[in-house]
Amino acid sequence: MKKLIIALALGAVSFSSAAADVKRGEELTKKYNCASCHGADFNKPIDPSYPKLAGQHADYIAHALNAYKRGGDQANGRSNPIMAGFAKPLSNQDMIDIGAYLHSLPSQLVVSK
Q1: Which end of the chain is more exposed for a tag (fewer CB within 10 A), N or C?
Q2: Which residues contact 23 (CB under 8 A, 6 or more apart)?
Q3: What predicted TM-score, i.e. pTM, was given to this entire model?
Q4: pLDDT tens, position by position, 12-48
């Protein structure tokens, strides 16, 4: 089984597909209404500047959520008041689960055409 290492604020968290709970990730995206900005299928955001999340790498999603949680004034943080508000209450496991769920979705992401 492949393992990915996700570096989060509290240290490195090892996770594999067995450790991530895709169903819980789906529930969390509904709870926080992620589709309201990123689109119902997470492929068609309401604004072209918002990222498509479906199919994105799970570790990238977890890292991005952690960066929003840290905030823009911290090292490797991201500054966006809306995303920061959603990310603040998330635990490391929540971020891993959300990443696993979004990664599992059919994607329109392409590397090149």
Answers
A1: C
A2: 101
A3: 0.80
A4: 555 444 489 999 999 999 999 999 999 999 999 999 9
